[in-house]
Amino acid sequence: MNTAQTTLSDAAGKPGGKVTRADIEDKFRELQGDLTSAAEGVKGKAMLAGGVLAVILLLVVFLAGRRAGQKKSTVVEIRRL
What we know:
The protein is mainly alpha-helical. Helix content is 77%, strand content 0%.
């Protein structure tokens, strides 16, 4: 008997029996539920990290542009005659 088949049969509650389509579908639904709940937990953290990164990037670009503007600004001297 195949080792993988024995493991699946034991998990399905039918030692020595065949794995049915319903057994596979049940296991798939169980795994899908676990992955869905894990993905929802990570999604919130990823959104927060993306927002913080966007704000930092915007701040760096603003400060770099401000510095470049100060370096290139024209100085105008006004003299009285």
